[in-house]
Amino acid sequence: MRPFAVSAISLLLASIAVPVSAQDREVPYWATLRSEEVNMRVGPSEAFPIEWVYQREGLPVKVIRLREGWRLVEDPDGERGWIVARLLNPKRGAIVVGNGLADIRASGDSDAKLLWKVEPGNVGSLGDCDSGWCRIDIAGHKGWIREDRLWGDGEP
Fold it and tell me: What is the residue range of the signal peptide feature (predicted)?
């Protein structure tokens, strides 16, 4: 083979390996579901039965174990199972939890302007958290929510 061909093949193989290695992080860590439909299995292969079918892109999960392209995850209800790594996004997300409507404010302060209220179960992209408040984007609506009203923030 010519040196150029060898270099091109090496570069191609390196670029393919990057996404796989990007998911090989120290556990536990947070991730979100990458697709509208994601199967959670009882074991780390397609040979194992499906335990749950999630139909919620962006739902946060806690990754607690890695195994050959599969991730053992825990969902917001505490259920555990295996999801193929390519269906997980390392982007942080959160789900609103607790009782009653949660306030979304203009800044991370109880006295900040109230922008709207959100029901538990809504999911969004999680931004920075500071002093008990987290920046959140729910379907393009951005604001700050109390950290204790979220699952998917903080140390996993």
Answer: 1-22
Residue ranges making up the domain that contains 141? 94-151
Say if residue 75 is in the same domain as residue 105. Answer: no
| pTM of the predicted structure, to 2 decimals | 0.81
pLDDT digits (tens, 9 = 90+) for 91-102: 999 999 999 999
Q: Give the whole-angstrom CA distance, residue 153 versus residue 11.
A: 36
* Mean pLDDT (whole number) for 112-132: 96
Q: What is the CATH number of the domain that holds 101?
A: 2.30.30.40
| Angstrom distances, CA of residue 68 to CA of 21, 27, 50 | 11, 14, 18
- If one counts the domains in the chain, the total is 2
The rounded mean pLDDT for the chain is: 88
Q: List pLDDT tens digits, range 30-61.
A: 999 999 999 999 999 999 999 999 999 999 99
Count of beta carbons in the 10 Å neighbourhood of residue 143: 23
Residue 24 has pLDDT above 50, yes or no: yes
Q: What is the DSSP string of 32-92?
A: EE-SS-EEEESSSSTTSPEEEEE--TT-EEEEEEEETTEEEEE-TTS-EEEEEGGGEE-S-
d(CA 48, CA 71): 14
